[in-house]
Design a protein that fits this description.
CATH superfamily of chain A: MetI-like
Number of strands of chain A: 2
CATH topology of chain B: Rossmann fold
Strand content of chain B: 15-25%
Largest sheet of chain B: 6 strands, mixed
CATH class of chain A: Mainly Alpha
Oligomer: heterodimer
Order of helices and strands of chain B: HEEEHEEHEHHHEHEHEEHH
Distance between the termini of chain B: 28 Å
Shape of chain A: flat
Helix content of chain B: 25-40%
Distance between the termini of chain A: 50 Å
Number of helices of chain B: 10
CATH topology of chain A: MetI-like fold
């Protein structure tokens, strides 16, 4: 029971890192997406290189770079912030690609209808393209969020006291590794399954709304 | 939906031109899609644009509201002249599109919005109408195209013919001076096409200036009062529909008419 209590005490940080990194990535992905679709070749190339670079480096390397490598004078990232920023940047790269795919899934006629009606770019994005793209992207975004929740366990290596950190600590203190890690696995499952269920419900609801 | 003004009666209407195209040219790379196309469309007239596929009909139509940018030439809609050799300022583009409504072959309704929102949202955003004002106008137009009962549904619940009538209502809601139709019935079963054509006939009878790319020869003959035949990116005949259909001057027209009429 003590083991379970120790692991559960890491849940807020696991959720915190996941949620903050996800939000950071989801927001950051929008300007990157716009850059990828820029009319200026240089901007497109820059965005493409950035996305590929970010995705090409393993998360653990990113976190080490941010946590141990980045200092300004006496300032450096806390473990939590380094984890959020590192995983946030990685999320931005993946979510950019997911958004891009969703935009591609929207029929060209939607853009043309908007243009012919004289809708502004802002209106098109907010009222026509955005909502449709969101519907297309949702299942993939949810899948990404679930994988991010699990990948957030990497934050334990730079000392974020999340579920995984506590699991490692318990094992080091002589608890049975198989039992401890089994419990850790169970905790992650309990956290991720509701995410999947909620995303499927949302998806079904949106589909039903359109088919009404 | 029965009273249709025949072409003859409409001859008397004022013949000021609503749309005038001069020397429009457009190429995709090496392929010249439109070559020196000039066309004048009278206010209140119905122009049918016909010709074999690949003739450039749709491209020409899409040039009128600048969904396609011609490489050169001028477009004049209701007296406002745009020189396409230069960059068209956003303000002029918006003004042009405000006057020109368009109906597409594939309807292009917004699937995530209800029928009513499809028609109301552009009114609110483009004309600045209030929600209640826009909704009132939308319902009035839905009534007119015979779909008042569909207001709260989503487009996916409507048949193709219904969707196209909704698309017409959506375009009309912005009070355009010209309506462009790009093969409006080509994606529809013949029967569903008829209900769309009925709405178009009614619109024509009310004096709307219309330019219609179509393969519906009966519509071209009975409703339009101006027939334009295109082939290979050029206009090869331009005049009275019955005249051209009964006695085409161009061998290419004869060929085309034989092909479509014998089907």
């Amino acid at each position: 029971m003590d083991v379970l209590r120790a692991l559960v005490s890491g849940v807020p940080l696991t959720l915190g890192v996941t949620a903050c990194a996800f939000v950071l990535g989801a927001v950051l992905a929008v300007p990157v997406l716009l850059m990828l679709r820029s009319r200026v070749l240089g901007v497109r190339v820059l965005a493409r290189v950035a996305v590929d670079l970010v995705r090409g480096i393993p998360p653990v390397v990113w976190l080490f770079i941010l946590y141990f490598g980045v200092t300004f004078g006496g300032w450096q990232f806390s473990a939590f912030n380094a984890a959020v920023v590192g995983l946030g940047i990685i999320s931005a790269a993946y979510l950019t690609e997911i958004y891009r795919g969703a935009l591609r899934g929207i029929h060209v006629g939607q853009w043309e209808a908007g243009q012919a009606l004289g809708l502004s770019g802002m209106t098109m994005f907010r009222s026509i393209i955005g909502p449709q793209a969101w519907r297309i992207a949702l299942p993939t975004v949810a899948t990404y969020a679930i994988s991010l929740l699990k990948d957030s366990s990497i934050a334990s290596v730079i000392g974020v006291t999340d579920v995984m950190f506590n699991a490692t600590a318990e094992t080091r203190q002589g608890e049975n590794g198989l039992v401890v890690l089994g419990i850790a696995a169970a905790v992650y499952i309990v956290l991720s399954v509701p995410l999947a269920v909620v995303s499927r419900m949302l998806d079904a609801r949106m589909r039903a709304a359109v088919a009404r | 939906m029965t009273a249709t003004t025949g072409p003859d009666e409409r001859q008397d209407m004022s013949r000021t031109s609503m749309v005038r195209l001069e020397a429009i040219a457009k190429a995709y790379g090496d392929h010249q899609v439109l070559t020196d196309v000039s066309l004048s469309v009278a206010s209140g007239s119905v122009t049918a644009l016909i010709g074999p596929s690949g003739a450039g009909k749709s491209t020409l139509l899409r040039c009128i509201n600048l969904l396609e940018r011609p490489d050169s030439g001028t477009i004049e809609v209701d007296g406002d002249l745009l020189d396409l050799g230069h960059r068209v300022p956003a303000k002029d583009l918006a003004a042009l599109r405000r006057r020109v409504g368009m109906v597409f072959q594939s309807f292009n309704l917004f699937p995530h919005l209800t029928v009513l929102r499809n028609i109301s949202l552009p009114q609110e955003r483009v004309l600045g109408r209030s929600r209640s004002e826009a909704d009132a106008r939308s319902r009035e137009l839905l009534e007119r195209v015979g779909l008042a009962d569909k207001a709260e549904q989503h487009p996916s619940r409507c048949s193709g013919g219904q969707q196209q009538r909704i698309a017409i209502a959506r375009a009309l809601a912005l009070d355009p001076q010209v309506m462009l139709f790009d093969e409006p019935t080509s994606a529809l079963d013949p029967e569903l096409g008829l209900e769309v054509l009925a709405v178009m006939r009614e619109l024509a009878a009310e004096g709307m200036t219309m330019i219609v790319v179509t393969h519906e020869m009966q519509f071209a003959r009975d409703v339009s009062d101006h027939l334009v035949v295109m082939a290979d990116g050029r206009i090869i005949e331009d005049g009275d529909p019955r005249q051209i259909m009964s006695d085409p001057t161009h061998e290419r027209t004869r060929q085309f008419l034989r092909a479509v009429l014998e089907r």
